[in-house]
UniProtKB/TrEMBL annotation, chain A:
Name by which UniProt lists this protein: Ubiquitin-conjugating enzyme E2 1
Matches recorded under InterPro entries: UBA-like_sf, UBA_C_fun, UBC, UBQ-conjugating_AS, UBQ-conjugating_enzyme/RWD
Source organism of this protein record: Lentinula raphanica
The enzyme's E.C. designation: 2.3.2.23
Keywords carried by this UniProt record: ATP-binding, Nucleotide-binding, Transferase, Ubl conjugation pathway
Class of enzymatic activity (EC top level): transferase
SMART domains referenced in this protein's UniProt entry, alphabetically: UBCc
Active-site residues annotated for this sequence: 88
Boundaries of every UBC core domain copy: 3-150
The keyword DNA damage appears for this protein: no
CDD domains: UBA_II_E2_UBC1, UBCc_UBE2K
PANTHER family per record: UBIQUITIN-CONJUGATING ENZYME E2
Record's keyword annotation contains Lipid metabolism: no
GO molecular function annotation: ATP binding; ubiquitin conjugating enzyme activity
UniProtKB/TrEMBL annotation, chain B:
GO MF term set: single-stranded DNA binding; ubiquitin protein ligase activity; zinc ion binding
Name of the protein in its database record: Postreplication repair E3 ubiquitin-protein ligase RAD18
Enzyme kind, highest EC tier: transferase
Highest classification ranks of the organism: Eukaryota, Fungi, Dikarya, Basidiomycota, Agaricomycotina
Pfam annotation, one family: zf-C3HC4_2
Location of the UBZ4-type domain: 151-179
Region (Disordered): 1-24, 112-147, 197-226, 318-372
Length: 219, 372
């Protein structure tokens, strides 16, 4: 058994034995080098109450090369791509050190959620949202936590909030929603599709209207 | 559930600090076990070396790490190089002793815990644990703990008297001789002297071995700048150490680099712990087969590859075309394996037949639809 497998085994065991950190690891397929990690959203942040899942791939030269991690759960955060889940964090790139473990890296991700770094963004649109209006950003992040990470109050939000709010909280432009609603699609469907396509900011230019309509017809 | 079982299987043969009870139950043992482990490989230190900053790692681990980045993995101190490594024989000795007593100690701890759970109070258990583990390691601690716990100062004459004898001592108006302590202190001296003589003999053995091994060179191999060397010269370097000289330039350079690393890491161990050259050669061979399994073979000419594999691609496309058919295992595994070359050919070559390429992309899409 090679050193990499031995170390990964120990790390999985370590996570399993540690009940205080609330971090879990499980296998995705039969390989111990492709895992799914999860951690609870940090308290006192818009991510509180959600459970965030991370796709973990352990490279051949681990632990001398960093693990590859990306969010499976959609996260509204300046340093996480809202479309792909790619993460901008130094220790996952050039600041990796072989003494870091899967657990410590997942804890770092958890603390990344606590302290966003909008000056070194992964998702420029989200970062812009964060710097221009923190309050509205928090609301969207909370909404995403509820929708995607199973955060608390999912039902109340849908019942209580007005339609206009829903557009803003989903991080969409009212004009865009109106545009497709004008084509005769129901409003909630438009919001749903646009959110799924991540129809915001620079993405708008990349996603053709035909594509949106196509999706709307499909759903 | 099946996944849970797999993890259980993986974990079954893992030895780690959590084998010991937590800090709250038996203080220190778990911590001791984890602090004798290298933070890179999480095994016990194997040929421990210390950096400028004082952090300690297995020689082989830190050499591999330094080849990636010149900093201490623990504190990120800059400009650390292989020349800064210093052997840490004291640590090596501790690790060896710990490895020897670990399973024994684990058994004692588990036994006493089981015993405690059924009957006796926890305070007593802790004491027996301490004294037992102390006898295993150091004679001086034993005497310490026994003076602390078994002896009391007589309230009348202030003499140190064994706890169980204190009543009879006072009954006799402090007139009994301190005969109780004498034999025990003599015993302590015997213990200490005995222990010392043991150390001496083991040292001697080490020296004898040293002299017998002195023919083997004790100097680390210099690292070479391979760019200035021709293939033939690299092969000569390999044959100097009776290593295989087969393979292309990349292979033989990698082989020689690895040999230098494991050879020098081996020198960081104390003489009696070193591996023989033939075992090192076997390690190198194992490492090479591992590397071969790990590296995916690069496709140098995507167009040629595509033409050569055309029948297989066509088969895959055919298999994937009817939507909604249950995908067979062979289809998914092969298509995953070929995903990369097909992407590449799309970006680099234009003369690749479009039907194959387009069809293949479609095949992937259909496949992923089936999964979702």
């Amino acid at each position: 058994m090679d050193a990499r497998l031995r170390r990964v085994n120990k790390e999985i065991a370590d996570c399993k034995n540690d009940r205080t950190s609330n971090i879990t690891l499980e296998l995705i397929d039969n390989s111990p080098f492709h895992l799914k990690g999860s951690f609870p959203g940090p308290e006192g942040t818009p991510y509180q109450g959600g459970l965030f899942e991370v796709d973990i791939v352990i490279p051949d030269s681990y632990p001398f090369q960093p693990v590859k991690m990306k969010f499976i759960t959609k996260v509204y955060h300046p340093n996480v791509s809202s479309a792909s889940g790619a993460i901008c964090l130094d220790i996952l790139k050039d600041a990796w050190s072989p003494v870091l473990t899967l657990k410590s890296t997942l804890i770092s991700l958890q603390s990344l959620l606590c302290s966003p770094e909008p000056n070194d963004p992964q998702d420029a649109e989200v970062a812009k949202h964060y710097t221009t209006s923190k309050g509205s950003f928090d609301e969207t992040a909370r909404y995403w936590t509820q929708i995607y990470a199973g955060g608390p109050g999912t039902k109340e939000v849908k019942g209580l909030r007005g339609v206009k709010d829903e557009v803003a909280i989903a991080g969409l432009e009212k004009a865009h929603v109106d545009q497709f609603e004008g084509l005769g699609f129901p409003r909630n469907k438009v919001i749903d599709v646009l959110r799924r396509l991540n129809y915001r900011g620079a993405n708008v230019a990349q996603i053709s209207e035909d594509r949106v309509v196509e999706e709307l017809l499909k759903s | 559930m099946a996944r849970g079982n797999q993890i259980q299987q993986l974990m079954s043969d893992v030895q780690d600090p959590s084998d010991f009870p937590p800090q709250s139950e038996v203080p220190g043992l778990r911590l001791l076990d984890s602090s004798l482990r290298c933070t890179i490989c999480s095994e016990f230190f194997d040929g421990p070396v210390t950096l400028k900053c004082g952090h300690c790692f297995c020689s082989l681990c830190i050499r591999e790490s330094l080849s990636e980045k010149h900093e201490c993995p623990a504190c990120r101190e800059d400009d650390v190089d292989i020349v800064h490594l210093r052997k840490n024989p004291a640590m090596e000795e501790v690790v060896n002793a710990w490895k020897q007593c670990r399973s024994h100690l684990l058994q004692i701890v588990n036994d006493s815990r089981g015993h405690v759970d059924s009957s006796s109070p926890s305070k007593k258990r802790k004491r027996t644990d301490e004294s037992r583990s102390a006898t295993l390691t150091d004679p001086s601690t034993t005497s310490d703990s026994s003076t602390l716990t078994d002896f009391v100062n007589c309230p009348m004459c202030d003499k140190r008297v064994k706890y169980e004898d204190i009543n009879s001592h006072m009954d006799k108006s402090c007139k009994d001789e301190p005969a109780v302590t004498l034999p025990s202190s003599k015993l302590q001296w015997d213990n200490i002297l005995g222990a010392k003589s043991q150390v001496k003999s083991s040292k001697k053995r080490g020296k004898e071995r040293a002299s017998s091994l002195e023919e083997e060179t004790d100097y680390p191999l210099p690292s070479k700048s391979y760019d200035t060397l021709k293939d033939k010269q690299v092969r000569e370097l390999l044959s100097e150490h009776d290593l295989p000289t087969t393979g292309d330039r990349k292979t033989i350079i990698a082989r020689h680099q690895r040999w230098v690393t494991i050879y020098n890491a081996n020198l960081d161990k104390t003489l009696k712990m070193r591996k023989s050259l033939s075992i090192l050669r076997r390690d190198l061979r194992d490492w090479e087969t591992q590397q071969k399994n790990k590296t995916k073979h690069d496709i140098e000419d995507p167009t040629a590859y595509q033409i050569k594999q055309k029948s297989e691609f066509d088969m895959l496309i055919e298999a994937a075309r009817p939507k909604g058919t249950p995908k067979s295992n062979s289809v998914t595994s092969v298509s995953n394996g070929h995903k990369v070359p097909s992407n590449r050919s799309g970006s680099t070559t234009k003369n690749s037949s479009p039907s194959v390429h387009g069809g293949f992309v479609e095949a992937i899409v259909v496949d992923s639809d089936g999964e979702s």
